[in-house]
Amino acid sequence: EAGVAQSPRYKIIEKRQSVAFWCNPISGHATLYWYQQILGQGPKLLIQFQNNGVVDDSQLPKDRFSAERLKGVDSTLKIQPAKLEDSAVYLCASSFPGSQRGKLFFGSGTQLSVL
Amino acid sequence: QQQVKQSPQSLIVQKGGISIINCAYENTAFDYFPWYQQFPGKGPALLIAIRPDVSEKKEGRFTISFNKSAKQFSLHIMDSQPGDSATYFCAASKEEYGNKLVFGAGTILRVKS
Fold first, then answer.
1. Confidence of residue A2 (pLDDT cuts 50, 70, 90)
2. CA nearest neighbour of B88 among B111, B67, B57, B58
């Protein structure tokens, strides 16, 4: 079974530039999550989708971050404009109905460096 | 606001020893406590989980101990191996929030051979 795919693996940008990350969850997984993992911290949920609808985006900085999940499959997370404090690993995860509670399948992440 | 406090930040254990990582939570509404393991360059992966109505859960060399009154839980890795070297995260969730997880800050474990 293929895992959660993310790209790019690494991204380096200047502050105030824009950047986009892509995620392809495991086939059949209706729930998709974007987490931000700052160095030395645990992952923090940015947004959760159920199919193509947003379930929770309470911690998404909406003035600069946006995310979409068209057709309930792939998802894109965008940052515009980026700030230095956005440097982090952006993790995408997915889960399916009936899976063990708390069991999320994570991708390897996109490491973003904002200079 | 950090809702799950994890310690220590890093841990070095000799091969064959016991690794112990502790977590404490504040919100008594939390009702599910998973532990995740993360290797460098990889995403976290679920290791083991416990509900608060159980005081202990064991899976192989990994055991979660849970103290509901103290609002604390811990991960014990018995017979620690170099392959266990990774970052470990405790987490907590509430039934009403489904799979929304609040993670601790993580513990970097190094097992010396």
1. confident
2. B111
Q: Does B34 touch chain A (CB under 8 A)?
A: yes
pLDDT in tens, A4-62: 999 999 999 999 999 999 999 999 999 999 999 999 999 999 999 999 899 999 999 99
Q: Is the peptide bond before B52 cis (omega within 30 degrees of 0)?
A: no
- For B45, which of A40, A48, A106 is closest by C-beta distance? A106
Give the burial class of B46: count Cβ atoms within 10 A of its Cβ; 0-12 exposed, 13-18 middle, 19 or more buried: middle
Q: Could B106 and A41 be called an inter-chain contact, meaning their C-beta atoms sit closer than 8 Å?
A: yes
Beta bridge partners of B104: none
Q: How far A42 CA sits from the closest chain B CA (Å)?
A: 4
Do residue A41 and residue B105 have CB atoms under 8 angstroms apart?
yes
Residue at token pair 């859960």: B57
- Please state, in angstroms and rounded to a whole number, the distance separating the CA atoms of residues A53 and A71: 10
For residues A96 and A98, what is the distance between their CA atoms, to the nearest angstrom? 6
Asked if A42's CB is within 8 angstroms of B6's CB, the reply is: yes
Contact (CB<8Å) B93/A101 = yes
Residue B54 contacts A where some CB pair is shorter than 8 Å? no
**Quick check: B1 pLDDT over 50?**
no
Each residue's pLDDT tens digit, B28-50:
889 999 999 999 999 999 999 99
Residue of A nearest to B106 (CA): A42
Angstrom distance (rounded) from CA A57 to CA B30: 20
